[in-house]
């Protein structure tokens, strides 16, 4: 029987990166293709993924990354997740021509701008889970980060069509990273507290 379990058992959120390590282009391209293939409600794909490898831009982003400054500076790459800033742009780019366009027009659009953007955000979080799982499988260390100044990130990245939600640092853990499982064992609730079988 094939099992994915060992990859998640060994995964942890990296707190300190090796600044000398750089992911190769093929790995980044594969991760982007994995993100492209991520599922979303009604195949809406309401996201934009920005890969940051430029040290100059990383330094700018680090200044507005709150307690995540060192991670941003020392990781190999950042992937910044964004969603459409305006409902109209999303509809023009993604909705028109969808096989389930009628569903969107009848069920989602009437809820209004804020509700639709919240719905888009939830789709982006699905793709985040896919990315983190893929990184675990590919032996790439990762850190999902909501602790950033989203408005400042959006301004620095310079694409006002999209609003930043969160970022993921990618790279290789520093050997002294105290969050490694050998130093800080994984803590999870017992399955009986988290699930039910009916």
From TrEMBL:
GO terms for molecular function: oxidoreductase activity. It comes from the Bacteria. It holds the Pfam family Nitroreductase. Keywords: NADP, Oxidoreductase. InterPro entries: NfsB-like, Nitroreductase, Nitroreductase-like. Residues 9-172 form the Nitroreductase domain. It comes from Porphyromonas circumdentaria. PANTHER family: NAD(P)H NITROREDUCTASE YDGI-RELATED, NADH DEHYDROGENASE_NAD(P)H NITROREDUCTASE XCC3605-RELATED. Belongs to the nitroreductase family. Transmembrane segments: none annotated. This is Nitroreductase / dihydropteridine reductase.
């Amino acid at each position: 029987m094939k099992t994915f379990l060992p990859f998640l058992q060994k995964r942890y959120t990296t707190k300190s990166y090796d600044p000398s390590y750089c992911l190769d282009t093929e790995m980044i391209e594969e991760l982007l293709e994995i993100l492209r293939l991520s599922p979303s409600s009604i195949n809406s794909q309401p996201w934009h993924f920005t890969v940051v490898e430029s040290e100059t831009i990383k330094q700018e982003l680090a200044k507005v990354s709150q307690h995540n400054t060192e991670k941003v500076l020392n990781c190999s790459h950042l992937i910044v997740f964004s969603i459409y800033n305006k409902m109209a742009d999303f509809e023009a780019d993604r909705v028109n021509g969808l096989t389930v366009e009628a569903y969107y027009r009848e069920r989602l659009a009437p809820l209004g701008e804020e509700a639709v953007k919240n719905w888009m955000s939830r789709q982006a979080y699905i793709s985040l889970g896919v990315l983190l799982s893929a990184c675990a499988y590919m032996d790439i260390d990762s850190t999902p980060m909501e602790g950033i100044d989203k408005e400042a990130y959006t301004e620095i990245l310079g694409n006002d069509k999209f609003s930043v939600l969160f970022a993921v640092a990618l790279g290789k853990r520093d050997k002294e990273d105290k969050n490694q499982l050998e130093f800080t064992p994984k803590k999870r609730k017992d399955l009986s507290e988290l699930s039910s079988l009916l």
